[in-house]
Design brief:
alpha/beta, 7-stranded mixed beta sheet, 37% helix, 13% strand, globular, binds pyridoxal-5'-phosphate
Length: 428
């Protein structure tokens, strides 16, 4: 990030010239709020309430059971999956929008472990990053117990060296949820495959935020989140992708009836569907899936304007601006930037640390209409984080300017020291 000062007037100008500026109107954002938490819960698509009202009153109310066919409910996981495929470099018929990220990780990691046990039975290690999102590590821990394998955690900088001949599966989150640091997926897959390991990727902070090409990067398995940059709403279904070379090799363990080759044959014995179909388990929450469909459409609306490449360009110029403004206006307040300065290593967020007060500062900002969030650290190596997600679909350059301005006010006035900002809520 080279330093350069941007005035509010320059930011207004950047918004006027922004080729993606019109996409903001696809969202219903609260008046006057600067929302920098779309990496945790995406904004409400303007089309969602009417679409859901129609799904409730017509498809559910009038269509009733017939809507499984007539409204296309039964195929919706595949149809939404096909749309998500366009955002992540997957092919039609390879992605399902189902279940949660945690559950999908359980399914794909189980499959990866079965493949590894069959092809390379001496490999007993699942390798991951110590700073990976906890649910990913917890799921891996449980699976390692079941398969009598070892979950080995290393720091980000040690991954390549740790890829030894005992590693069965490398499981990583592409963009780190705390720091926004992004792995070079192609290089990691390449190294892992050369060492004989399979790669499982979590795209929770990548899908809809950064360019992805799972095929070009030679990935094996991936999961991702529906309620973050895909704007699917609270608890939206997640997605999963399995490379076709792996999908038919083993069952995934949650062998429910939706993954059966013929669910409506109601046979007593399980026969897995071919391809990605077997990664379904049971009946999906249609209203949530319909909301996710609308959310994914907001990202696809960028396709005629340059698609993910254009969104990525804008995201980078927003986070670059954030870094420049911080450098210019907030030096001397004990805040340091932990997100990578190098564009190719940075996802779509800006994370800051401060030795003390990170939680209170975030609360003081929220009270001033700038919504970011706080992520607790675990000591010196991973200090507390102030996190600002930048969704390029609806974040404006002026929003970044005002957010940094509010942060400047909170820091220079010392108002964050007020005891009322220190009381921690249950959801941070
Ligand atoms: C947000 C996130 C999840 C969320 O998992 P849920 O099953 O939806 O609770 C999982 N992994 C990562 C890396 C995330 O960022």
């Amino acid at each position: 990030m080279t330093s350069g000062f941007h005035s509010l007037r320059e930011c207004l100008q950047l918004d006027e010239q922004d080729p993606l500026g019109s996409l903001r109107s696809l969202f219903d954002l609260p008046e006057g709020l600067i929302y920098l938490d779309g990496n945790s819960l995406g904004a409400l698509p303007r089309a969602a309430p009417a679409r859901l009202a129609q799904a409730i009153s017509q498809e559910w109310g009038q269509g009733l059971i017939r809507s499984w066919n007539s409204a296309g409910w039964f195929d919706l996981p595949r149809r939404v999956g096909d749309k998500i495929a366009r955002l992540i470099g997957a092919r039609e018929g390879e992605v399902l929008a189902v279940d949660s990220t945690s559950v999908n990780l359980y399914k794909v990691l189980s499959a990866a472990l079965q493949i590894a046990r069959h092809d390379a039975p001496r490999r007993k290690v699942v390798l991951s990053e110590r700073s990976n999102f906890p649910t990913d590590l917890y799921i891996a821990q449980s699976l390692c117990q079941q398969h009598e394998m070892e979950l080995r955690l290393v720091d980000c900088s040690e991954i390549m060296q740790a890829l030894g001949d005992d590693v069965a599966v490398l499981m990583l989150t592409h963009v780190n949820y705390r720091t926004g640091a992004m792995h070079d997926m192609t290089a990691v897959n390449d190294q892992a495959h050369r060492c004989g390991a399979l790669c499982v990727w979590d795209l929770a902070h990548s899908a809809g935020a950064v360019e992805l090409d799972l095929h070009a990067a030679q990935a094996d398995f991936a999961v991702g989140c529906g309620y973050k940059y895909l704007n699917g709403g609270p608890g939206a279904p997640a997605f999963l992708w399995v490379h076709a070379r792996h999908s038919d090799r083993f069952w995934q363990p949650l062998s429910g009836w939706w993954g059966h080759a013929q669910p409506f044959a109601f046979e007593p014995g399980y026969q897995p569907a071919q391809g990605i179909g077997r990664y379904q388990c049971g009946t999906q929450p249609m209203l949530s899936l319909i909301a996710l469909d609308v959310g994914v459409d907001t990202v696809l609306a960028a396709e005629p304007l340059g698609g993910m490449a254009a969104l990525r360009r804008k995201s980078l110029s927003l986070t670059r601006l954030f870094g420049q403004l911080l450098q210019h206006r907030l030096s001397g307040h004990g805040l340091s930037l932990v997100s990578p300065q190098d564009d190719v290593q940075r996802g779509s967020q800006i994370s800051l640390t401060r030795a003390h007060g990170a939680y209170a500062i975030v609360q003081a900002l929220i009270e001033r209409g700038v919504v970011g969030d706080f992520r607790a650290g675990d000591g010196a190596e991973h200090p507390d984080i102030l996190r600002f997600g930048v969704c390029p679909l609806y974040t404006r350059y002026v929003d970044i300017w005002h957010a940094v301005d509010a942060l400047h006010q909170v820091m220079s006035s010392g108002v964050w020291r007020d005891a009322k900002y220190g009381q921690q809520h249950s959801v941070t």
